[in-house]
Amino acid sequence: MRLYTTETITIPVRDARTLDVLVIRHDNHEKQPLPAEEDPKDPAAEAEKIPGQAPILHEKPADRSVGVLWLHGGGYATGSARLVMMSAGLELARHYNVTLFVPNYRLSGKAPYPAALHDAYDTLLYMKQNSRALDIRRSQLMVGGESAGGGLASALCLYARDRKEVAIAYQMPLYPMLDDRDTETNRDNSGVFWNSRRNRSAWKMYLKPLYPEKIIVGHPYNPSYLLPLIEICGPHAAQETLDKACEVYKAMGKEPVICKKEVTGFIVNSLSWGVMDDGIQKVLDGVCEVED
């Protein structure tokens, strides 16, 4: 027995774009007529005026459904909103007074980070700003997802917290895709459906230039006109990245020094301070004068 209805809406998002969002509503939920204007005594409206206060789980009219932003999986690179039809998110709409909003966020093959995060946030903001028209409770906006969608849900909650525009009542990240690094538990995963190789490939596509294998820090020696050294630190950088960095710096007339580990401070600074300390001590011991 089907307990839900579906429709696709198109919403405006940043950069003058639009985004398709699959809406799944509990079938027994009858949309309530909109009041002429929002009740100024609406407890949800009062809650949002108090920074840091958790959303109140009681709102008028009580018959409005709970709005849940659900984010599909697919390693940030594949999938679509229709994947929700095979997910735990669908069960919420089947059995509870819940309305799911599942955006077709941009995939990493065409638009890497932070495109998917921005699409998710713009959908959440649309839900809040249009809660009356969508017949959902503004005080009970929830976020959830599976796999990459779970990781995106967690990132979205942090992003919303920092922007302070939307209060999220609850998050439900299921087996979330969170860490781009090899860990003890996933380093040698050889699973058929998902494994270490696919995980690394998916993160590389999603993070692109932000991926650790492509990140280095270059620190020139100061003052640069005295000694043309530049330290390159990139303990997780690929050899190809280090070679390219050295090529670029040498073309600038610099001599690269590769740091194999992250340390506090810089090698050349440590050496220069050591020379300076020894020189000061020589002056103090009467070995030479400052002018020397």
In short:
By secondary structure, this protein is an alpha/beta fold.
Helix and strand pattern: EEHEHEHHEHEHEEHEH
Q: Average pLDDT value?
A: 84
Question: How large, in whole angstroms, is the Cα Rg?
Answer: 27 Å
SS elements, strand count: 9
Name the beta content range.
Answer: 15-25%
Overview features:
292 residues, alpha/beta, 3-stranded mixed beta sheet, 8 helices, 22% strand
Structure description:
It is a single chain. With 292 residues, the chain is an alpha/beta fold. It contains 8 helices and 9 strands. The chain has helices at 43-48, 88-95, 115-129, 131-134, 148-163, 196-207, 239-251, 267-284, and strands spanning 4-13, 17-26, 65-71, 98-103, 136-146, 170-174, 217-220, 229-233, 255-259. It has a 6-stranded mixed sheet, with helices on both faces. The chain has a 3-stranded mixed sheet with strand order 7-8-9, with helices on one face. A hairpin with an 8-residue loop joins β7 and β8 (229-233). α3 (115-129) crosses α5. The protein is elongated. The model is unreliable at 32-51 and 53-59 (pLDDT under 50).
